[in-house]
Design goal:
Blueprint: H1 8-18, H2 24-52, H3 60-66, E1 71-76, H4 96-108, E2 111-114, H5 119-126, E3 132-135, E4 140-142, E5 155-156, H6 163-177, E6 184-187, E7 192-195, H7 202-216, E8 222-227, E9 230-235, H8 241-251, E10 261-267, H9 273-282, E11 286-291, E12 301-304, H10 326-333
Parallel strand pairs: 1-2, 1-10, 2-3, 10-11, 11-12
Antiparallel strand pairs: 3-4, 4-5, 6-7, 7-9, 8-9
Helix pairs in contact: 1-2, 2-10, 6-7, 8-9
């Protein structure tokens, strides 16, 4: 793992010193010193991650130089890259500014949105035509009507055979988690997403996970995955966002183009790592991670989110995951 933070040594030091019979001012100084040391540790680790994953915006000229004379294809996740992460998944709206920017991208490059959401739902959020929409982590693909393909080729659904079982399972899951405060089931057509971002008590999450696992066990052709504050039950087929990326390149006639194609993929979740790996294997293109905190990733570039975009903020503008202020995190990315 490229980034790993451990605060155990600092905690031990604080406990050892504070156990001595010193006055309150000295105690205050010790805690202040320990806090400063912890922050310096965070900044150092974050800076190291930023060196390994340079700013995508700062590397724009580098990307354009690498892509010169090539056919760029753009892939985007929805939640995170195009919209903020919010407590209510039904309220994850794109800004008008983001939509206008996306429309401009679409006029120049073939563009796909590959989301864990259902295809209809993500299409309703984006509201931009001439885009390849792939829902359910790429298991529900739609080609834009502007293409020359026949109507029979408009949809690609490799997990269609699993729909009856998914619908049966969703009813059971909804009934089991209904009484768990803060839990919510989202029907994403080819996968069942159980959100727990609003669960407050740890014991409620444990109960939720047990209930979801108990349902999945009765359907051996499915498996359980985890995302950002979400548990998902998906069909056990060899298909993910990386396969969706390759399918789109094949559909566009780019798969056998060799060095002529330059994919850009912007994502923020562990499900996007499958697409990052495909680009890594191809040896050209740029996988870009969107995040407010350092994380282990196959991406080679990063976009550090500003305050409030990812929903992990604590009080006073401090990131809840790495305990850095906005100013400190911006210093890491610079």
């Amino acid at each position: 793992m490229r980034f790993q933070r451990s605060s155990t040594p600092d905690k031990q030091k604080v406990q050892h010193v504070s156990s001595k019979a010193v006055n309150n001012d000295e105690n205050s100084g010790v805690f202040s010193l320990a806090s400063t040391a912890s922050n310096l540790h965070d900044i150092s680790a974050c800076s190291s991650w930023a060196v390994e994953h340079p700013s995508a915006l700062g590397s724009f000229d580098k990307m354009m130089k690498a892509a010169k004379g090539m056919r760029i294809v753009v892939f985007l996740d929805y939640d995170g890259p195009l919209s903020p992460i919010v407590d209510d998944p039904d309220l994850a709206f794109m800004s008008d500014e983001m939509r206008a920017a996306l429309r401009e991208v679409v006029t120049y490059f073939p563009t796909a949105v590959i989301s864990g959401r259902s295809r209809d739902k993500v299409k309703g959020f984006v509201q931009v035509s001439n885009i390849y929409y792939a829902g359910s982590h790429g298991m529900d693909f739609m080609v834009p009507k502007a293409s020359e393909l026949d109507d029979s080729d408009m949809l690609f659904q490799p997990a269609k055979i699993f729909l009856p079982a998914i619908q049966e399972m969703r009813i059971v899951v909804e009934e089991l988690v209904r009484k768990i405060e803060g839990a919510r089931v989202e029907d994403n057509r080819f996968c069942i997403s159980v959100h727990y971002r609003n669960i407050v008590r740890e014991e409620d999450y444990v109960i939720l996970e047990e209930k979801v696992k108990s349902v999945r066990e009765h359907f051996p052709e499915f498996h359980l995955t985890r995302g950002k504050k979400v548990l998902e039950i998906r069909p056990s087929i060899e298909w993910n966002k990386g396969d969706a990326l390759e399918y789109l390149l094949d559909t566009l006639g780019f798969r056998d183009s060799g060095d002529d194609v330059f994919p850009l993929y912007i994502g923020d979740d562990r499900t996007d790592e499958d697409a990052f790996k495909v680009i890594e294997t191809r040896g050209q293109g740029f996988p870009i991670i969107v995040s407010s905190t350092p994380k282990n990733t196959k991406a080679v570039l990063a976009h550090v989110l500003s305050k409030g975009r990812e929903g992990t903020k604590g009080k006073n503008g401090v990131c809840g995951a790495c305990h850095l202020t906005d100013e400190e995190r911006e210093r890491c990315a610079s």
